[in-house]
Amino acid sequence: MTRAALAAGILLVAALYFGRPRSSSELSRLPELVQLRELEEILASRNDNDPRLDRDFLGLSPDAKRLFRAKYRSTPRERLNERGTIVYLLGKNLTESADWAFILEVAAEPPCLSLADCSKRSAEGGALGDEVTLAYPSLVALRQAARAGSRNEARTVLKAGKASKVRAVARLAASLDAGFDKTSR
To answer: Smallest Cα–Cα separation from 88: which of 134, 139, 19, 18?
Structure first.
């Protein structure tokens, strides 16, 4: 994606979320857009080990989280790593009901059937590990919910995961839920 296209996309998303029209210089100073631009750079670099992931996205504002959720929803389902990274960041910032609703939504997503097209099963059949790869965003959502502690919201997310049609999601949810039971004794 070119820088011009990225900038235009950011301006469009900003207009949708922040209401009144603003100049590009005014928008470029909004911390939420700076964080979105930084996320876009990290996703484009495909560097899962970028230290900014653990440093620069703590304490996201409600507006930043809305932008990140919009980014998740606008990212093609087949871009599993990018979507999982966004879930990871949002999962580190679970502070309000909208955050938990999003994590629940991701944990309960329908199965992605192939890396090429989530809506169609691959003709070659799946290789070992494909099930985990295809469920990556949901698995991240479960881990982030469990990391938040044995709260009612986390239990609701794990319950949805246990009901998933994706075996890897159901197994992880059951395992994490059992861990809650052990720590609450």
So the answer is: 139
Residues 6 or more apart whose Cβ sits within 8 Å of residue 147: 91
**Predicted TM-score (pTM) of this structure:** 0.81
Exposure on the CB side of residue 17, measured as CA atoms within 13 A = 22
Answer for the pair 160, 153: CB distance below 8 angstroms, yes or no: no
Per-residue pLDDT of the chain (185 residues; tens, 9 = 90+): 565 555 556 555 555 555 555 555 555 558 899 999 999 999 999 998 999 999 999 999 999 999 999 999 999 999 999 999 999 999 999 999 999 999 999 999 999 999 999 998 877 665 546 889 999 999 999 999 999 876 899 999 999 999 999 999 999 999 999 987 666 54
Cβ atoms of 39 and 71 within 8 Å: the answer is yes
Output the CA torsion sign for 66, 69, 76, 3.
positive
Coil/strand/helix, residue 51: coil
Q: How far apart are CA 166 and CA 84, in angstroms?
A: 16
